[in-house]
Specification:
alpha/beta; Nucleotidyltransferase, domain 5; tRNA threonylcarbamoyladenosine biosynthesis protein TsaB; about 25% strand; 6-stranded mixed beta sheet; about 35% helix; 5-stranded mixed beta sheet; 11 strands
Amino acid sequence: MKLLALDTTSGACSVALYDDGRVSEQFIQAERDHTQRLLPMVDEVLAQAGLDLSDMDALAVSRGPGSFTGLRIAISCVQGLAFAADKPVVPVSSLAALAAGVRRQHPEWREAPVVAALDARMGQVYWGVYSPKAPNCSLLPEAVQNPEDVVHALRESDLPHELYGAGPGWHYPAFESAPVHAVDDAALIHARDIAELAALLWRNGVSLSAEELQPLYLRDEITWQKRQKIRSQ
């Protein structure tokens, strides 16, 4: 199985190649110039492996949630590549990828659920909780909320007592009272973790056509639900 994964979600730009369990990655921590960096990184990753886009079984990308601009850049690039090569796409949760990456970087956290949080601005975070047994599925519904509401949800949940936190969303002071053992707020999303998660999804038959690929904007979904409620009244 060969998958090419791209990400520009959380202040970094990365491309990874999954080749029958072996993963290689180009990763740059840069807030800007993602559009100029991404395709050259794709070319370099493929060239180093002696492979072409046509050799891929599928492409993988973060579907969100995350920065609107960052998501659009990676998704647009993947759609263009998938169209050109006539390949399917495997969308992966950006929060799941963040949690998988921090478990990779902290072996002592491998058996515990990770609460992944990305800054959604306006005093809110995108968040979800991911266990190693089902790394693509949040134990609580992915949401965008105020940090205080996240802390309340964690305290009221029946999640295991051993929890860890990951991601730049954890900088809010309200999280100081969160029921977690430790936090890595410097953790970023890596395409290598998207590739690993996409490989699991691909084996389970999960894929989309390039036309079907859409970013997941949790805030947009909530706004749409409110509008629908108002219209029905």
